[in-house]
Amino acid sequence: MTHVITQANRQRLVLNHQDHKYEFTALWLRERSPDDATRDPYTGQRLIEAAEIPLDLAIERAEASDEELTLNFSDGHSTTFTLATLFDKQTSDSPRQLWDAAQAPISEANFATALEDDSALLDMLDALHRNGFVIVSGVPADSDGMQPLIDRIGPLRRTNWGGIADVKSVANAYDLTMTQRGLEPHTDNPYRDPIPGYIWLHCLANAAEGGDSTLADGFMAARLLRQRDPSAYACLTRVTPSFRYCDADTYLESEGPLIELDSRGEPVRVRYSNRTEYIPALLAKELEAYYAARKAFYELITGEELTLHLKLDPGQMLIIDNYRLLHGRSAFQLAGGVRHMRQGYVDRDSTTSRRRVLQQRLTNPQSQGEPA
């Protein structure tokens, strides 16, 4: 049974439901009222101006059952919540599974199946969300072979390098990715705003000697750093370097901490790009702390404890969460053959949207056509 109590001059509501206690303010309940007078029935968007609700709004009457809560407010408005909706914390996402090299999951998907079947596509996107990467096999061998699957998820993110671009050794390379040298673990394009959310790396040829891909879970690295060196962790969440990319036609610059936290104090994005980082001339004590903290983080993301080694075959594609994973490669020699990858970006919002819409459609077919 649900019991309801009003407190603080009837401006707060306490619900005791299934051995849990929930507290809500009258203002919060009023602006979230689910009725058609408050929210558009199709878009779900608010019709009233929430900032105009009187700050002294009170709850005149509250009645609760095991299924519903009915409220009358002092502004004359009445509404009814279903308790399932009221207690929904908007946490439908499955939790991320952090990993080290010994426990790294190898999530795989088939290109043709994901292209044609919504359930398979959702499985692929769930694995990408959960583990930070997924390997897709059976990608067509043409230069834009990944494009049809990108189109199933969201628009291709275009940059100053175009859409889907080559990653191979060329003369007079405009970026170190276009050379044969090894690349330290890094996240892509921290100098952009917004930073691309997901990297799509399609292998056309990989016969060169070397050139193995590496992955490290940046969120796991952050967790270990917080456990082993709390002061270093605090420093990397506090100090904000800038990142810069310049060529004859482009000047890109942005900033952000190496470990960015969300409103709950949990890592939501990692940045690491030795090639493009510019730390400002901070006070000497702060710089010394930052350099020591960065070194501790670097040792984690380059150590064998966290490093997963992969070598993509032609027709395989690696999709990487660029907010979470750090990727790199070993050096390669062209004497053994060609190493030719094609790379594109898809933003985070469209990828998350597609996954959540598929979840709704496949778990609740009646919701199709309703606002997502």
Structural class: alpha+beta
> Structurally, how many domains make up the residues?
2
What is the H level of CATH, i.e. the homologous superfamily of the largest domain? Clavaminate synthase-like
| Largest sheet composition | 7 strands, mixed
- CATH topology name of the largest domain, in short, is Double-stranded beta-helix
- Rounded to the nearest angstrom, the radius of gyration is 25 Å
Shape: globular
Mean pLDDT: 90
Per DSSP, the total helix count is 9
Q: What low-confidence regions span 5 or more consecutive residues with pLDDT below 50?
A: none
Question: How many distinct beta strands?
Answer: 24
Distance between the termini: 31 Å
Q: Report the CATH architecture of the largest domain.
A: 4-Layer Sandwich
Strand content: 25-35%
Q: What is the CATH C level class of the largest domain, in words?
A: Alpha Beta
The helical percent reads 10-25%
